[in-house]
Write a structure and sequence with these properties.
The complex is a heterodimer.
Chain A: E1 5-7, E2 10-13, E3 19-24, E4 31-37, E5 44-50, E6 53-56, E7 65-68, E8 75-79, E9 88-95, E10 103-104, E11 108-112
Parallel strand pairs in A: 2-11
Antiparallel strand pairs in A: 1-3, 3-8, 4-5, 4-9, 5-6, 7-8, 9-10, 9-11
Chain B: E1 4-7, E2 10-14, E3 19-25, E4 32-37, E5 44-49, E6 55-58, E7 61-65, E8 71-76, E9 85-93, E10 96-102, E11 106-111
Parallel strand pairs in B: 2-11
Antiparallel strand pairs in B: 1-3, 3-8, 4-5, 4-9, 6-7, 7-8, 9-10, 9-11
Classes of the chains: A mainly beta, B mainly beta.
C-alpha cells in the first residue's frame, strides 16, 4: 500500500516568490493534515481537513498561506509571498476517521533565500 | 496555552546503555502517542496510550502513561545504533481531539 506522497521533496526559492506543495494521502483516509516543522522542533499543525472541509485552520497564517482539498483527496498548500521565516519542512499526513494513527509523508523541505 | 515539554532535549548514550525520555503536559490528556523521526526522515507512529497508568512494551521499548494522564515516558533498554532519532510525544490539541499537539522532542544519539 502506498504511503502519503508529497511533492516536491525539496524547494529553494527567493523571498517574495510563491510556492506550492502537493499531497496525496493514503487511499481511503478522509482526514488530511498539513504540519510545519522547523529545525529542531516538533511538527505544528497548520490545517486539518475532514474530506474536503477545512475543520481546523486556526494556526494557518491566512495572510500568505492557503490550502485546498478538492474532491476530498489530494491537497495543495500554497505560500504567497514566501518569507525567510517560512523555511521549514512541510509535512502532509493522513488518517482514517481522524482519531486513529496519523501517517506522515516524507515532507517538502522549503528553503527561502 | 497548551504545552507539552520533553526532557532531555538531547541525549548521547553509548551503545548498550539504556535511555529514557519524559513527556509532561500542562493539561490532562485523553491519550498520548509516541513518534520516532529518523534524521532527515518523517515522524513514524510508535504507539498510543489511553488508560491511566498504562504500560506497553515493544521489544526493547517500554511506554508508560502517568496516573494523572499528564505525563508519559519512553524507556529503551540496551540501545542500538538503529535507535538513533528524535522521539516525540503527542497529545490531542486544545482545538480538537483529532489534532495532534507535538512535544518538543528528545534527540537520541547512540555512540557505537
Amino acid at each position: 500500500e502506498a504511503g502519503v506522497v508529497q511533492s516536491p521533496r525539496y524547494k529553494i526559492i527567493e523571498k517574495k516568490q510563491p510556492v506550492a506543495f502537493w499531497c496525496n494521502p493514503i487511499s481511503g483516509h478522509n482526514t488530511l493534515y498539513w504540519y510545519r516543522q522547523n529545525l529542531g522542533q516538533g511538527p505544528e499543525l497548520l490545517i486539518r481537513y475532514e474530506n474536503e472541509e477545512a475543520v481546523d485552520d486556526s494556526q494557518l497564517p491566512k495572510d500568505r498561506f492557503s490550502a485546498e482539498r478538492l474532491k476530498g483527496v489530494d491537497s495543495t498548500l500554497k505560500i504567497q509571498p514566501a518569507e525567510l521565516g517560512d523555511s521549514a519542512v512541510y509535512l502532509c499526513a493522513s488518517s482514517f476517521g481522524g482519531r486513529n494513527t496519523i501517517y506522515f509523508g516524507e515532507g517538502s523541505w522549503l528553503t527561502v533565500v | 496555552g497548551q504545552q507539552v515539554m520533553q526532557i532531555p532535549q538531547y541525549q548521547h548514550v553509548q551503545e548498550g546503555e539504556d535511555f529514557t525520555t519524559y513527556c509532561n503536559s500542562s493539561t490532562t490528556l485523553s491519550n498520548i502517542q509516541w513518534y520516532k523521526q529518523r534524521p532527515g526522515g518523517h515522524p513514524v507512529f510508535l504507539i498510543q496510550l489511553v488508560k491511566s497508568g498504562e504500560v506497553k512494551k515493544q521489544k526493547r521499548l517500554t511506554f508508560q502513561f502517568g496516573e494523572a494522564k499528564k505525563n508519559s515516558s519512553l524507556h529503551i533498554t540496551a540501545t542500538q545504533t538503529t535507535d538513533v532519532g528524535t522521539y516525540f510525544c503527542a497529545g490531542p490539541g486544545q482545538t480538537g481531539a483529532n489534532n495532534l499537539f507535538f512535544g518538543t522532542g528528545t534527540r537520541l544519539t547512540v555512540i557505537p
